[in-house]
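Figure 3 (text version): structure tokens given as input.
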């Protein structure tokens, strides 16, 4: 039984408490939040849990083996660092930190101390995303040409990070996973329509190896809640809609063929669209947050490296976010990401 301390019990933290309590081999025994009202709410939901306003109490408690950091993004690095220094395994919500160097420092600390450090890239545990990966890896789509992601809604708003840092870690971690690579260069644009100092809307374009372009649109100022990804291959195309419970994946047997005939007006060839069936494959259901928590707990129990979402993967995402942010600051000029 792995005993967990949860740090940050706002909107998301209680989900972690619920899940760690549901698993056979873990238990959330203590939680921390600066806000007494939140702690009162947590005690009413989970009467057995110990609560504190000071997360350092969790770090000092010898019964706590691992911590789950679900506090605001700008606290992730400091809290994760102290937790590792206190000898605790760490599961940290996305993004792992706000600077690539911080991710490397955490990685180094965890490796030297022999502790598990995992980041909450929850979509790599999503059955729909795993299905996309299956189709890409099997070659069914042919050569992947480009992809795009939309993650929009009206709110929820954040006050510590902008919409890019809040939402795009999901899509960047998904694309890095699907393409088994990191972007080579990025560009972005964004705007602060709501009058704060933070961008509410951002568009990021990531260039992956083999000329694969992936575009990401994130916004908390949009009429529709959308969670979608489209991937275009030269044989087939596929779309994922996380909000479509009946069939989150649609495989389109569509592609374009070039005829060998010579058309003077079109140049040397003509493009013909080929349209076949649309398939809705079965996608198993499991709560990604639960699968992710189970994986973390097993890594702790078995002293197994969390390959699916380790500190290096957290670093890759943070490095790409920093590069997109830099591009936004430079009016959209491309920023190269060095190996
Ligand atoms: N994986 C996902 O799908 C997903 C979804 C939502 C949020 N998140 C992540 O979870 C984290 C929290 O998000 P949220 O929506 O719950 O935010 P939130 O603002 O609702 O809650 C954060 C809580 O942390 C508390 N807090 C702040 N500083 C603290 C400290 N030093 N010690 C203890 N508690 C502290 C605040 O009082 C607040 O209650 C963020 O990093 C976010 O990116 C992930």
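Below: residues designed for each position.
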């Amino acid at each position: 039984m792995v005993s967990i301390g949860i740090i940050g019990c706002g909107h998301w933290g209680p989900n972690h408490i619920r899940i760690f309590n549901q698993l056979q081999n873990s238990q959330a025994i203590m939680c921390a939040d600066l806000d007494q009202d939140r702690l009162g709410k947590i005690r009413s939901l989970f009467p057995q849990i110990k609560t504190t306003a000071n997360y350092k109490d969790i770090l000092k408690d010898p019964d706590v083996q691992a911590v789950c950091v679900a506090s605001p993004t700008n606290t992730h690095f400091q809290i994760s660092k102290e937790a590792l220094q206190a000898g605790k395994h760490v599961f940290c919500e996305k993004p792992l930190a706000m600077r690539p160097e911080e991710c490397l420092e955490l990685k180094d600390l965890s490796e030297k101390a022999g502790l598990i450090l995992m980041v909450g890239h929850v979509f790599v545990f999503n059955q729909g995303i795993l299905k996309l990966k299956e189709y890409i890896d099997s070659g069914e789509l042919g050569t992947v040409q480009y992809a795009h992601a939309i993650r929009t809604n009206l709110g929820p708003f954040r006050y510590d990070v902008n919409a890019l840092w809040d939402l795009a870690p999901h899509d960047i971690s998904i694309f890095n996973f699907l393409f088994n690579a990191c972007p080579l260069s990025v560009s972005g644009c964004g705007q602060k329509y709501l009058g704060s100092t933070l961008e509410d809307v951002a568009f990021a374009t990531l260039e992956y190896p083999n000329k694969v372009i992936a575009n990401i649109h994130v916004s908390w100022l949009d009429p529709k809640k959308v969670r979608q990804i489209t991937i275009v291959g030269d044989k087939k195309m596929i779309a994922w809609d996380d909000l479509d419970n009946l069939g989150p994946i649609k495989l389109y047997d569509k592609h374009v063929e070039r005829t060998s005939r010579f058309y003077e007006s079109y140049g040397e060839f003509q493009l013909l669209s080929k349209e076949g069936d649309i398939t809705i494959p079965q996608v198993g259901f499991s709560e990604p947050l639960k699968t992710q928590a189970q994986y973390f707990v097993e890594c702790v129990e078995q002293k197994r490296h969390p390959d699916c979402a380790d500190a290096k993967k957290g670093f890759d995402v943070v490095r790409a976010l920093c590069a997109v942010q830099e591009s936004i600051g430079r009016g959209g000029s491309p920023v190269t990401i060095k190996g």
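The domain at 124-285+320-336 is CATH 3.30.360.10 (Dihydrodipicolinate Reductase; domain 2).
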